[in-house]
């Protein structure tokens, strides 16, 4: 019984608790690898990196609002320097999750981290060009949009696509973990979950977006528009002989150019939605659909 | 080759990058207008404003918990003063996005910002009264709710409606950009996306709410209840002669009094859901429904 | 007219506003109880508590990344001490919302807060063990997952389940308000809304998760897997004789072991999804389904 | 030898260190008292309290700069409420250092903390009035001062006197520890060390102030002016029979009205500096000085 | 008597307090000027500005440590842009304290603020050049200094001189208030109080520095070295006919080139310390001293 | 003339400024060494480290106030782990300032940083024991002190001594830069400037302390007490043949056991203050003083 309830602090039986949690940990995975302790990537730093890269690409909207012609390049240069040095550190941490990491010397890890970071840096102008096509698609695709600024500032779909396009650059370089963390940051902020392994063409527009899921092996063409709660997912998974799931197998839809998919539609498996098709809301699609199709839900019932 | 990998910093080829990004920017929209640099509204400040206005309306739940009868009005007064001065600054920034803004003198902008802010201030008691009806609707509509405090503290739907009702006041005054930013702040926090242009009656309740979308020209009556993943959206867009989308056209549903719409239902286009109707989960509705209807999905199939 | 627009501050008619808001407040619920002012639980502190408990259970992933064999137990012990003291304070605040709270002395409240907090502490090893089964289920259930670390760091479903399992411990002790605030913190971060009253077995996996809703009286068996936008909800509510809703009535589904429910499916009411069944995407289920069933949506239509 | 210098973390031999520090602690004072753990006052919170009280007294200079006639009282009221509640908590913690504290019930401690805090509140108008006399003395005493605002914003002496005058109110109520912490906060910020037990008349001015020390039993009259590095200290201490120092004995100077003491002068012991005297720089005074004296250092030497 | 000591909050009699403080304020100075409310300069922003200007001049020591040849100019450019925009805002606020401010239009204030800020910007290379001479003087004057980095990072005298030299630029432009706030920021951090109106030559070194005071009309030549607790002050003040102090009168010492003044010396009045002289510790000097003099304290006494 | 004064931002002529500052930098020292960029130690991190080490030694006063017997060792262990890892990083940065650093491999630097940090760790119990003697000396030496807690919380002299004793451990290991930064952090907070190279015995007490300076080669015995503004400094410096100052030469006083030095006294040069002597306030001492002497200032003058 705590005799001085508002002076002292009760005991929590910490020793037994600590022991029990230690025992529990010893039965499970350790974040170690042959004696090396891995430093995990930091979600907070990755968030900072994504904001920094976005600010370097769109300085007046995502950077500072008082930039002038004489100051804007210095803002961009300074932001890039800070951000790329941060990214380099996170890339190095991420590389420790590669399966063959044991074979790497510390110097080789450093050099590879610089190389990958430089690749991300070099791809920024190209990423920006595609994002501009996405901006235009949003402006043209939504009668509620009044300006490009409104899309940059108020459209969660644009944030999700921006972070996806940056994460996809790292994904294509074979980086583990980091790209997933980056798109999960977008997912948490927007409700839009795009796997960094997906392939997405230019002029892509997601409206509202909450609940959208785009799987790892999805391929999306140009000028595609999708709405909230659309799933482009896997139907079933191929198992290896030992019963484990086969990783990396193509198992998500192919969506060709100029397709529109309305709210709540679910497309599952390696099916193809043909060019120019329209998929209505709440439909469940598990078979391929020819070009220029128009699919809708079965008729509703009056009870 | 970086010779001192953990002492020095590698180069990132910044000059070329800066130049490439500058070139990319020059092909796209600038946030400028005849030489004036626009100061953009700040999402962080708007979040602060929304929390301040909510705290002024519900001081013990959204303000401070140690308020007494003698101190509560001072808290409200001080919070309002701080918040309204912040709002005035953001409104002035937002006004620069009006198309006819060139014609305005600096003094006229100041005066208009004060006028709009004062209008928001004056509407607060009325907004609070409607929010109280929403609170009661939530308490009566959810058997899991045990107290009004629980709704104020734990129901994302109430946050989304509060921010929408405040944004709607600004929308009706013709403010660009700001109202959208305000409802997008709610969207990011709750997954509920209500366009500030929507018209929503009293005693409105959204349960759970993730994935809800309510479009710009939607009209919702009194005592309406909707669930997560419900879309009240547009079916198709009217184009102008030049192929661009016609803005502001009525294109979203009218939901009359006492309607309930269950999870995942999608209602598209300028259709009317008649008074007292119930729309079942996952239904896709593109036609008007008479009063007191009960609509559900076509029967499911056993494979 | 404000004569010195950029020097002075306009008046906001504060007195009238304060008076109007006071009048509005007097018509509604006060957060008081027979003259006692209740201190409300703090969402920010609860968030801190949830992160602290998660860090105590998974120190290298949710705590600090530089922990060694010699330091890890000290991190756990110190984190627990800080967190449990915080929790004790919030539990005490929460207890004031119990209906019979008037009868309690200050000392009894203190003692009960310590008792409840100690119960949470003691349950941590067991909670961790179940969470490890959830981790394994995620790894086995998603071919896109490459490591346990990836699930701990990137899977919102795991965050939602962790916070639910902690909140459920408090719920089962009869704590009001706190458990709901805890799962709502998870809901806001992940879009997954699990009521703390739900009963969920081991090896549970939610993939993507945005829009998932699991109601208060839901019962879920072992090895269940569900996807985004799945609702396990109530169909209709039982009313008391006075027309108010009956609280606590079993009204949500029972999902037996080894069931999979795909994206967008809505299961409503006290129905049972039999062991081993598969519910397809976007299906609306309001009747029980026998074991090993496979349910899918009615066929789609080509318009 | 640490084999993976930049991956892992070395061990620090924590167990032995922790044990050695525990042993060291056990030989020295514990902050406990018959089994009760004392919660120490918090320097950070006291700093907040001092700033809050200063802001309540001088709202436009130490509070917010956008206050208007309609908002200023709400700012004052809200600041007072917040600050006095904080003060009450710290006073309660401080009371635990009273030697007879064992005899107090928890309720008695609460009631005494409220009583003391209310006394501080009630004294604020009087404290402000004396501070205004100090402000005027500074303006009249320094030809470099151009406005009252300059003194409020730029004169460290005014900060030190403000915090002393607040601490002195608590000191006279017999509060242990808190008043010393409050003047030490001023000391750290300004280099001016005034013991809260000193008695200081109105219209007091300290110019520059770094290195000023004013001891516990010092008595200073009205319209006194002192400069940097002036010490009003004790010469020697009276010992009790057991060799310990006698506490609280008058041992510091009495400085009568209208005295000026220039930079670096040291006045030690219970001597009296008579009304209207001037003490020159760097003088060491250990004997009383009659009224209207003018004291200076012995002549300097050319080497 | 507070009946529920740890639930509720006591009353503080706020209304009477607020009224008493309002009455007290009405008897004293208002920070208003013919109806205009002045926005006061912000100490926090000025601190930020001083750090920004120091970082622009010494980027690797006061800015960021990861700067490279390719990134350093972008850091400098970006820091300058941000800092100068902040400074412009504070200068505008400061200008409102000019006695003839009523005659100014808002546009004239804006233009003057830009003009003054631009002047500060343009003077930065020259300020840096003098600071480099100060750095060299410190390195040559202190045998304990091992590197220029040590002086930049560890010598409070260098911080005080840097902030003084920046404040002096504003002082010479006739800016009120701001320069004093800037040197007071240095005073608070270092214990060194240099009035921004003092005139100080190149290669100036203050060692240790706590307690140093240098008055408004002091003139210091080149290569002067002073130690802690040295006062260069005024002896007496000239009064106007109405008894008020005459402002701006030369009343502080002239210290010629190559003088050394040791710890604790006090030099008062418009006296001249001739070129190459040495003033010993703790000496009180009120008369001029010819070139190459060596002054020390009168002999000490053995008691 | 800026045509849109409150919309746009003026230009600051950044290019010319950047160029001028670059030119200025090129004439002065670069923080580089044969092409390596040095990462400078961080003052903010060192402050964190000092607070961490102090908290490990005095957990209830400088750590957290809610520690219990069961939790205190975990707090100590966790604080040490975090702090020592931070220290190790700063030590590595500091080592780059050693003159022979070029010869070191990256691995050797890592190993040396670990070795030095471990030495600091191992010395903590001994440092704590000496600090306890200092605490007792303060309690016995000041009649105004009422408890050991008061000294730990309110006496700046104790902070300065604590940081000095920690810095001295690093100094004796030959670490450049870091020890000076550590005592400068104490200097800025307390006005007490102790060079980390000084040698100071146990039971040392500095009262008030502002303006105290203790030079690099000072030797202080046991049970010494000094007051504010006391200087233990160098009289003159030995020059090398090239006119530069000889570094490290013994040039500061030796103060034997049981000496008291009162406020403002200045002792310069390699003189010895004999055991048990008393030095009066404001005296300037440049010659040795035999044991048990009592020195005071020459008599003051009445003008």
From TrEMBL, chains A, B, C, D, E, F:
Enzyme class comes to transferase
Pathway assignment: Amino-acid biosynthesis; L-cysteine biosynthesis; L-cysteine from L-serine: step 1/2
Xref: NCBIfam families: EPS_EpsC
Tell me which residues make up the Serine acetyltransferase N-terminal domain.
Answer: 112-161
Q: Which organism is it from?
A: Verticiella sediminum
> Which is a GO BP term held by this UniProt record?
cysteine biosynthetic process from serine
| Listed name of the protein | Serine acetyltransferase
Task: Write down the EC number.
Answer: 2.3.1.30
Keyword ATP-binding assigned to the entry: answer is: no
Q: List the Pfam families.
A: Hexapep, SATase_N
Question: Which UniProt keyword terms apply here?
Answer: Acyltransferase, Amino-acid biosynthesis, Transferase
Gene Ontology CC:
cytoplasm
């Amino acid at each position: 019984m705590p005799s001085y309830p508002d002076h002292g602090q009760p005991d929590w039986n910490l020793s037994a608790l600590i022991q029990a949690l230690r025992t529990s940990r010893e039965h499970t995975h350790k974040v170690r690898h042959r004696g090396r302790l891995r430093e995990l990537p930091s979600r907070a730093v990755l968030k900072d990196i994504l904001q920094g890269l976005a600010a370097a690409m769109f300085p007046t909207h995502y950077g500072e609002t008082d930039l002038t012609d004489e100051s804007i390049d210095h803002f961009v240069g300074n932001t890039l320097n800070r951000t790329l040095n941060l990214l380099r550190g996170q890339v190095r941490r991420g590389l420790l999750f590669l399966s063959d990491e044991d074979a790497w010397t510390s110097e080789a890890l450093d050099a590879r981290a610089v190389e990958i970071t430089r690749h991300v840096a070099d791809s920024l102008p190209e990423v920006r060009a595609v994002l501009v096509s996405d901006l235009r698609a949003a402006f043209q695709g939504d009668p509620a949009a009044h300006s490009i600024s409104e899309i940059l500032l108020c459209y969660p779909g644009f944030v999700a696509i921006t972070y996806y396009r940056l994460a996809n650059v790292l994904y294509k370089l074979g980086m583990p973990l980091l790209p997933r963390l980056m798109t999960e940051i977008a997912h948490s902020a927007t409700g839009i979950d795009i796997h960094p392994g997906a392939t997405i063409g230019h002029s892509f527009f997601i409206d509202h977006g909450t609940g959208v899921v785009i799987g790892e092996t999805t391929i999306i063409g140009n000028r595609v528009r999708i709405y909230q709660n659309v799933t482009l997912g896997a139907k079933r998974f191929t198992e290896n002989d030992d019963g484990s799931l086969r990783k990396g197998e193509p198992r998500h839809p192919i969506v060709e150019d100029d397709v529109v998919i309305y709210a709540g539609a679910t497309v599952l498996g390696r099916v193809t939605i043909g060019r120019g098709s329209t998929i209505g809301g709440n439909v469940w699609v598990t078979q391929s659909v020819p070009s220029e199709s128009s699919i809708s839900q079965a008729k509703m019932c009056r009870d």
